[in-house]
Design a protein that fits this description.
The complex is a heterodimer of chains A (284) and B (808). Chain A is α+β, with helices and mostly antiparallel strands. Chain A is 34% helix and 26% strand. Classes of the chains: A alpha+beta (284), B alpha+beta (808).
Chain lengths: 284, 808
């Protein structure tokens, strides 16, 4: 558990960050809270000769709750999300999910940006941001560009972000309706056996909008458009639930690990999604 | 002489036995002022660490250290070839086997020590490790002991003669190259006959999975050879510092008086820190070679993957009974997976520990136990994780067999236990497998437990739950876990307990200071048990000086009397007894001094709390404080100055703590998630020294029991890769996963122990594991479940529900 030697950088601004990235290419990595990257380096599973700490770069720690949009800086921590009353009012699913990430100590360090940018299929925020149709802003040598969360994840640890780009902000369209983040895990601090993020809008007893994403059930987060569509126009009755779960199961591709075999994971994914939908529906 | 305070106040002032004295250790622990091995920093200290094998079974074709030696700060790389001239490339294990210190031509488990890199700091050592090039030739891997006994693959060529014959092992004849021993107890033929002719027989096969004690502090040491005075000082996480000193002397040839072993503060042991590890040997050699202190500290993965595991017992049982449920016979066969070397930490005559306590708390007239030890390509160990020498295995076995028999008899499992308990008047009771239980009152404890939890009401509620489940009103089942355990602790009588020939007595040496305070040193070593608190309490009650005025010191072999250390709940039964006996020697001398001072005959004074009083004249007395002063400063005819005593205590018998546990659990059959609604633990550990510390021990032991029962395991894949090498996958419960525990007690003193105490550190673990497991199994009993193996993690519980058709 001793990392290989590395150069440590702590630039004061984004230009400094980008300069190091440009110079060292994929030999350099940026770090926000470090709670994914540092353990990987200590296990020598990640080789990072040039480590760039973002903590001194300003302008990425704000939570802005606007009329139509929520904007989170990449360095906003899970603890910040939990403690922010206005944000919790506007998008309670963020707080519900953040409270299920790791443990309080990790949540004081772990950031939104690190969680979504790392591309770890076990992280909770990628699925959550896909459910909320968030937009990630990245900045690189050619300036800023926006990437939808739903188009960001390509494979485990492989994302649409280029090596010389830094994820700076997460913008979330103001959610409405009912919500739920349901997660089964073996213990505190564990990644999900299965987790479901659901945001649902009810109008006159009928589901008029539903967004569903699943976590740690494929090598990327899974936004299941079909699972959401299965609820549209229904009263979220038993048949609709069955259809939604069936659609979701068609989109995930879990693998066996210490949490259990594939059949178990599919079963639990169905149970967790069912519960999440019912909770969200009851809150809608 | 004036005396303003009442006798009761005098008792309270002592903070002696029976009071919940706050732990004196905690001031330093809670302020970060503990002194653990890794806190030791010496001038010029070097750091050593291991190149470890990625393969579970492989021949080593070559080791190239050249590139590693180029790393700045790397000073040396030791391999077996370097240790061989010293005769240190192998070392003896505590079980009579030998173990490679560094891989000698082959490796037998993943993570095995291959080379030892010595560097100026641990960063350089880690970089050096990366650059040691080892060429391996993979060999077929065996991770299953049953396959091992049938395999042509020889794991230990060193244990096969040149003509192909198989020499005897440390525990008798071996029948296969991968066979270590067969050990049995009891009467084979009569047992089989009783079972063959019984009215009812229940059979079950169960696997008690491999797990790990996982102390928060990993193993480590600092070796410092002073070449000027020829003295070796070895600090380490040793649960038995004196035994380590003797072993180091025997294998290194350094005379024992030139070796000083120090166990500083230890952050949990649970059996993991009993054995001797390659890191100790390599650090000593490296210090001798370099002339500098050398530190070795395991990281978490090293600890989980390579140092002493626990359990890995495949158990098959048959239990017979009359139609009314009176047990008539018990048969147990165990295939024990010991890994690549037999490094169990058991008394020499007991290669399967005290597994022969497996008749449990029941009056079983006939029984037979047979244990086969087998080599596989897994890490060595086989220690008693918070239990006395395989007692968790034994208690799990019998408490599962009782449940299975209850199913066979269609009987309530609580009632089945009750009608088979050894009765109070049968103690001392000689069990069919040989042990003499010292004391017990099982019926009283059981009745109290069942009454407190409202057992009948729980069963009614459970029956309703089953109805509701079947009617589709709930997806949660309710399990009622029962367990009644009898522990065997306090190893032990020298006549039948030794480790490597070292008798398992223990010791206490007391010096009373002239002003009436004292220091006592013991052969044990606390790893969190609170010895500095409780042993002072024993002494306070025995010698009448306040516990707050008594320093307890352990762990330095230059100052502490010889003892066999702390494990197997032996500290209170053995060293605690030595403490009481040494205290009584102090008191005997104090009595003579008091009599002299009071100008009466020795027999005319008697001890009263903190003083000797003249019989019939309580106003005439001398306090122990006054007596201490006189002992040093007053010429007393016929009595030497000073007030000191030492006692080496060889216990006449083990002690047999017992307890009654009940767990109420809800189980979500769709997700496998369990929720412990209630856990009640009644412990009878004999005389209670410090109720608060007992309660803390019970909480800790139950939490480790919960871990083992519900998910904690060292799992291997077919290639011998460890699948659970970090705390992400190895389950260590946090406050979040731990339920509220209700503790309770009865008191049945040990008749042979000087203060009647029996030991409690391991009871909750021993009794807790079957209780949690039985709760899971009980929930599924109405649907046809007989037995499922631990650990009961989410997916395995889900599988049970699935196989019983509960998802259909």
């Amino acid at each position: 558990m001793i990392p290989a030697a590395f150069e440590y950088y702590r630039p004061k601004d984004m230009a400094g960050v980008l300069a190091v990235l440009e110079e060292h290419g994929d030999d350099a990595r940026v770090m926000a809270g470090g709670h994914s990257l540092i353990p990987m380096m200590k296990l020598r599973m990640a080789d990072v000769p040039h480590l760039i700490d973002l903590q001194d770069v300003g302008g990425m720690s704000d939570i802005e709750v606007g009329t139509d949009m929520i904007r989170l800086g990449a360095l906003v921590t899970q603890a910040d999300i939990i403690d922010h009353a206005e944000l919790s009012n506007a998008a309670p699913i963020l707080r519900e999910a953040a409270l299920q990430i790791a443990d309080p100590q990790v949540r004081y360090m772990g950031t939104v940006g690190g969680n979504v940018a790392n591309g770890d299929p076990g992280n909770d925020m990628p699925g959550l941001t896909q459910c909320l149709n968030a937009i990630f802003t990245v900045v690189g040598p050619n300036g800023e560009r926006d990437i939808p969360a739903r188009a960001f994840y390509e494979a485990a640890y492989v994302t649409a972000r280029e090596d010389e780009e830094v994820l700076t902000h997460v913008a979330i369209p103001m959610p409405n309706g009912g919500y739920a983040y349901e997660k089964q895990k073996r213990k505190i601090g564990d990644y999900a056996t299965a987790a479901a993020a659901v945001q649902i809008v009810k109008d006159g007893g009928i589901c008029v909008s539903a967004s569903i994403a699943m976590t740690n059930l494929s090598d990327t987060p899974v936004y299941s458009e079909a699972a959401g569509e299965a609820l549209l126009g229904t009263s979220v009755d038993a048949a609709a639930l069955d259809a939604s779960v069936a659609a979701m199961l068609g989109d995930i591709e879990p693998t066996e690990d210490n949490r259990g075999p594939v059949a178990f994971k599919n079963h639990v994914a169905g149970v967790i999604l069912r519960r999440a939908i019912l909770t969200a529906w009851s809150r809608a | 002489m004036k005396d303003e305070i009442t006798r009761e106040e005098r008792v309270d002032n002592l903070k002696g036995m029976g009071c919940s004295r706050k732990r004196v250790e905690d001031a330093r622990f809670t302020q970060g002022k503990g002194n653990y091995v890794d806190d030791i920093k010496l001038d010029g200290m070097l750091f050593g660490d291991f190149v470890r094998s990625p393969y579970a079974h492989a021949r080593i074709k070559s080791i190239d250290t050249a590139a590693a030696l180029e790393v700045p700060g790397v000073l040396a790389v030791l391999t077996a070839a370097d240790l061989e001239p010293l005769g240190l490339h192998w070392m003896p294990t505590l079980a009579g086997d030998k173990q490679m210190v560094l891989a000698d031509g082959k490796v037998l488990f993943q993570g095995q020590e291959v080379a030892y890199v010595v560097a100026e700091d641990r960063y350089a050592a880690a970089d050096g490790i990366e650059l040691v090039e080892v060429e391996y030739e993979e060999l077929p891997v065996i991770v299953n002991p049953f396959e091992s006994l049938k395999s042509d693959v020889v794991l230990r060529e060193d244990l096969v003669a040149e003509d192909g014959s198989i020499p005897d092992g440390a525990h008798g004849p071996r029948k296969h190259p991968n066979h270590i021993f067969t050990w049995d107890a009891g009467d084979k033929d009569p047992t089989e006959e009783v079972i063959a002719n019984a009215e009812v027989v229940a059979e079950e096969t169960m696997y008690y999975h491999r797990t790990h004690p996982c102390p928060l502090e990993t193993c480590g040491c600092v070796a410092s050879m002073d070449k000027v005075n020829g003295k070796l000082t070895l600090w380490g996480t040793f649960q038995a510092p004196h035994a380590i000193r003797t072993v180091v002397s025997l294998i290194s040839g350094i005379e024992e008086h030139n070796i000083r072993v120090i166990s500083p503060d230890i952050g949990g042991g649970f059996g993991n820190k009993v054995g001797a590890y390659p890191g100790y040997v390599c650090s000593v050699v490296a210090s001798i070679v370099t002339g500098k202190p050398v530190k070795w500290i395991e990281d978490r993965m090293d600890n989980l993957m390579t140092t002493a595991f626990a359990r890995d017992y495949h158990m098959t049982g048959k239990i017979s009974a009359t139609k009314e449920g009176k047990i008539t016979g018990l048969h147990c066969h165990v295939t024990a997976d010991h890994g690549g070397f037999d490094a169990c930490a058991d008394p020499t005559k007991f290669p399967a520990g005290f597994m022969n306590i497996c008749t449990g708390s029941y009056d079983i007239p006939t029984a037979y136990l047979e244990v086969e030890g087998v080599y596989t390509n897994k890490a060595p160990g086989g220690v008693s994780y918070r239990c006395s020498f395989r007692v968790t295995e034994a208690v799990y076995f019998i408490e599962r067999m009782i449940e299975v028999l209850a199913i066979e008899l269609n009987m309530d499992a609580a009632e089945l236990r009750r009608i088979n308990f050894i009765k109070k008047e049968q103690f001392p009771y000689t069990a069919a497998l040989g042990w003499e239980y010292d004391s017990g009152d099982y019926h009283t404890a059981w009745d109290k437990a069942l009454k407190t939890v409202g057992y009948d009401g729980l069963r009614t509620e459970q029956a309703q739950r089953v109805e509701d489940f079947k009617a589709g009103k709930t997806r949660k089942l309710m399990g009622i876990g029962l367990s009644f355990f009898t522990e065997i602790v306090g190893a032990g009588p020298v006549k039948n307990c030794d480790i490597l020939g070292l008798g398992m007595f223990d010791s206490c040496e007391i010096r009373i200071h002239p002003t009436g305070s004292a220091i006592a040193r013991l052969g044990t070593i606390s790893q969190g048990q609170g010895h500095a608190t409780t042993f002072a309490q024993i002494l306070a009650s025995e010698i009448g000086l306040p516990a707050d005025s008594i320093t307890i010191e352990e762990g330095d072999t230059d100052t502490a009397p010889y003892g066999l250390g702390t494990y197997g709940s032996r500290s209170t039964p053995v060293a605690g007894a030595a403490t009481a006996m040494a205290g009584r020697k102090i008191r005997a001398k104090a009595q003579m001094i008091a009599a002299y001072l009071l100008e009466v005959h020795d027999n005319d004074v008697e001890f009263d709390v903190d003083r000797f009083v003249v019989k019939g004249a309580p106003e005439k007395f001398k306090t122990m404080k006054e007596i201490a002063f006189a002992a040093y400063n007053q010429a007393i005819p016929g009595i030497e100055p000073g007030l000191e005593a030492v006692s080496y205590y060889d216990p006449p018998n083990m002690t047999y703590p017992f307890g009654a546990y009940v767990c109420v659990m809800d189980i979500d059959v769709d997700t496998g998630v369990t929720e412990i609604r209630r856990f009640y633990a009644l412990d009878d550990c004999g005389t209670r020294i410090n109720p608060m510390i007992i309660e803390g021990q019970v909480h800790g032991g139950l939490t480790e029991a919960l871990a083992v029962a519900l998910g904690q395991e060292i799992a291997y894949d077919d290639m011998g890769n460890v699948k659970t090498g970090t705390l992400m996958d190895f389950f260590l419960p946090t406050a979040w996963e731990v339920p509220n525990y209700e503790t309770d007690f009865t008191v049945t003193p040990s008749p042979h122990h000087p203060i009647g105490a029996k030991g409690v550190g391991e009871s909750p673990h021993v009794g807790g594991v079957p209780c949690f497991s039985n709760a899971v199994q009980d929930a599924f009993r109405p649907f046809g479940n007989r037995h499922t193996n631990m650990p009961h993690d989410h997916w395995r519980i889900w599988r049970t529900a699935n196989e019983l058709g509960l998802h259909d």
